[in-house]
Amino acid sequence: MGVGLDHLQGLYAETSDPWGFEHSAYEQAKFAATRAALSQDGYRSAFEVGCGNGQLARHLIGICARYTGMDAVASALTAARKTVPEGRFVQGFYPGPLPEGDFDLLILSEVLYFLDHAGLDQLATDIATRWPQAEIICVTWRGDTGNPLQGEEALNGFAKALDTHAFTCVSKTENYRIDRAFPEGDR
Ligand SMILES: C[S@@+](CC[C@H](N)C(=O)[O-])C[C@H]1O[C@@H](n2cnc3c(N)ncnc32)[C@H](O)[C@@H]1O
């Protein structure tokens, strides 16, 4: 089983910033590195699964004509809407329905290791079916996640399941890695 909804809600019970995204120099530098890892200067429409309180979206909104974020936790989305008023934010616990959109950028930052293998397979199927041409960016914590799946275990499972895309690691530190995927044969 992946990390349950109760656990996610518990993380946000006392604060809308459980990981200290807003003030952590480490997190802000990682968000900048994520933006730098993208292949283009502009996207038509981006979608982030597990967008949290919108701190990463704040770094990306300037290069996305439209941005949609989804998170399971309502209070995270309330904070995200304040941080990025021009974004569209929807509540949803994955696996479950994903929003409509003609997305050309999919952002999977620090979220894959909250799922289980069935959820990763489902996400790969959803992407291959609905957004097969999208660029995908994955950001992955390399330390202990405290979740049933470790970061690189989840990333590898997802990359294997999404055989329509080719993955390349574009940045790696002791703590995290950033991987980018394009449709097979595109680059
Ligand atoms: C570590 S935070 C990452 C936030 C943001 N993507 C970033 O990189 O800064 C993980 C977020 O994913 C959300 N999340 C985890 N599992 C989820 C699921 N199954 N469905 C929807 N959201 C989920 C959590 O509520 C949390 O806000």
Tell me the major beta sheet.
7 strands, mixed
Count up the helices. 6
Count of distinct strands: 7
The poorly predicted ranges are: none
What is the name of the CATH superfamily?
Vaccinia Virus protein VP39
What is bound: which ligands? S-adenosylmethionine
Radius of gyration: 15 Å
Number of domains: 1
H-E string: HHEHEHEEHEHEE
Structural class call reads alpha/beta
CATH architecture, please? 3-Layer(aba) Sandwich
Strand order of the largest sheet: 3-2-1-4-5-7-6
| Percent of residues in helices | 25-40%
Shape: globular
CATH topology description: Rossmann fold
Mean pLDDT: 97
- How far apart, in Å, are the first and last alpha carbons? 35 Å
Percent strand: 25-35%
Keywords:
Rossmann fold; 187 residues; binds S-adenosylmethionine; seven-stranded mixed beta sheet; alpha/beta; 25% strand; methyltransferase; single chain
Itemize the secondary structure elements and their pairings:
Layout: H1 5-11, H2 25-37, E1 43-49, H3 55-60, E2 64-71, H4 74-83, E3 88-91, E4 105-109, H5 117-130, E5 135-141, H6 151-161, E6 165-172, E7 176-183
Parallel strand pairs: 1-2, 1-4, 2-3, 4-5
Antiparallel strand pairs: 5-7, 6-7
Helix pairs in contact: 5-6
